[in-house]
Amino acid sequence: MAAQATFKTIKAVIPLLDRVLVQRFKPETKTASGIFLPSSSTTTPLPEATVIAVGPGAPNKNGNVVPTQVKAGDRVLLPGWGGNSIKVGEEEYFLFKDSEILAKIKE
Q1: End-to-end distance of the chain based on CA atoms, in angstroms?
Q2: How far is CA 59 from each of CA 16, 72, 98, rounded to the nearest angstrom?
Q3: What pLDDT, on the 0 to 100 scale, is given for residue 90?
Q4: Are 13 and 86 in contact (CB under 8 A)?
Q5: Does 41 have pLDDT greater than 90?
Q6: Which InterPro entries match (predicted)?
Q7: By the 8 A CB rule, do 42 and 25 touch?
Q8: CB–CB of 54/43 below 8 Å?
Q9: Residues 6-38: pLDDT tens digits?
């Protein structure tokens, strides 16, 4: 269940420590040939997302800040479930820890 935001834009959210703010890709509701897919087949979240914002990083055992591995604009591969959801208007965003992100997608 997503927490309803009290701010007007997602740009107001600045992740802390090693948190990464992402927006998952939306599943297609229609095939290329024009057939509409049932809602039951489009409820599973897609594992890809776009990074919206990142935190500065988290301190390691020695107290040195380790920066996050991704930056805003990167495409990433996420676990099937998880993250903390934030809803702004009709859009849904997720906060993940940097270590929960599975891979960066390069094209």
Answers
A1: 32
A2: 12, 20, 13
A3: 79
A4: yes
A5: no
A6: Chaperonin_GroES, Chaperonin_GroES_sf, Chaprnonin_Cpn10_CS, GroES-like_sf
A7: no
A8: no
A9: 667 777 778 889 999 998 877 666 666 666 666
Which range has the worst mean pLDDT, 6-10, 63-67, 95-99, 101-105?
6-10
Q: How confident is the model at residue 54 (pLDDT cuts 50, 70, 90)?
A: very high
d(CA 21, CA 83) in angstroms, rounded, equals 9
Lookup result for tokens 């269940």: 1
Residue corresponding to tokens 């489009």? 42
Which residue pairs from 4-12 have beta carbons closer than 8 angstroms and sit at least 24 positions apart in sequence?
4/87, 5/86, 5/87, 5/88, 7/88, 8/88, 9/88, 10/52, 10/86, 10/88, 10/91, 10/93, 11/53
Pairing relationship of beta strands 84-88 and 3-4 according to DSSP bridges: parallel
Rg (the chain; Cα; Å): 16
